[in-house]
Design brief:
alpha/beta; 10-stranded mixed β-sheet; 10 strands; about 20% strand
Length: about 290
């Protein structure tokens, strides 16, 4: 309960969801950058001033040096991304940076821009449940590795782990499965460490007209009066678009197939992919959020 009390103090009591977001989105592929901007827009609150989105395209120096016309490359790359980002009221900035160490570049850019949320799009073949589960088991025996592969498309589990541990702000790892619309959102809570996800449920409920289904697999909402009240307020303000999954019902593959986006905490993700739940390997586009609560 101490962890939950700390969360309540830092979020619901202090209304952290009303703090302006300064989001850094990082990507290698244009399609992923556009999808990340779409998600960032859904987190923005038009009632909050001074919210910002910075779009960072990272490219290896060798590839950068092959580009004949940098300005033309940037125009082609960022055109659709800027149009997507401008659907919100946030200020939008774009950056193109050549680097040999993407993780360090992300952290430096985040610090320079004073970002409080970093969203990283990575290859879907990099962060599969099977491979991540195998890596977590390996890491538990080997300790945290010092070296890492650093590009986003080749970013290994070592790189992802290093980025999450080194980033003092909230980190979102996005696995893109061709996200086009955000009409059906599924938010599982499988670990008490992930109740910070409430901040994002509130933002999604305030901004989007999507249906949001919360799966409280551990019963934390019902057992904590403050969380239960906060959820009931979200339900009321969203005209019942925010719903709680009935734990008496089995979650079927057909339900998962109809989703557009899964938003889940890092600890819950680790539990989900280590479980025997068959549909955990058939998730749509997924945003895994890790927040450090001190």
């Amino acid at each position: 309960m101490a962890l939950i009390d700390k969360f309540l103090k830092k979020t619901i009591i202090e209304e952290e969801s009303d703090i302006p977001l300064n989001i850094l989105i990082c990507f290698s592929k244009q399609e992923t950058g556009t999808a990340l901007c779409k998600i960032a827009n859904h987190f923005m609150n038009s009632k909050i001033k001074n919210e910002q989105i910075a779009s960072l395209h990272l490219i290896e120096k060798e590839e950068y040096n092959k580009i004949e016309n940098i300005e033309e490359y940037k125009t082609t790359l960022f055109d659709g991304i800027i149009n997507e980002c401008k659907k919100s009221t946030a200020m939008v900035r774009t950056f193109l940076k050549p680097s040999e160490d993407f993780v360090s570049e992300i952290l430096k850019t985040s610090e320079d821009l004073n970002c409080n949320l970093v969203l990283i799009g990575i290859g879907k073949t990099v962060f599969t449940p099977q491979l991540w589960g195998s890596y977590q088991k390996f890491k538990s025996y080997q300790g945290t590795p010092e070296k890492m592969e650093s590009t986003l498309d080749t970013l290994s589990h070592k790189g992802v782990s290093s980025l999450i541990e080194r980033n003092d702000k909230t980190t979102g790892i996005f696995i893109d499965h061709n996200l086009e619309t955000i009409d059906q959102i599924f938010i599982p809570i499988l670990d008490k460490n992930d109740i910070h996800i409430f901040d994002y449920i509130k933002r999604l409920a305030d901004k989007t007209i999507a249906k949001i289904t919360l799966w409280d697999a551990i019963g934390v909402v019902e057992s904590v009066p403050e969380l239960k009240k906060a959820f009931q307020v979200m339900q009321k303000n969203s005209d019942e678009r925010v719903v709680m999954w009935d734990n008496c019902k089995k979650i079927e593959y057909d339900f998962i197939k109809g989703l557009d986006l899964v938003v889940i905490g890092f600890e819950g993700w680790s539990k989900l992919i280590s479980s025997a739940i068959t549909w955990s390997h058939s998730l749509p586009s997924t945003l895994i959020i890790r927040k450090k609560i001190y």
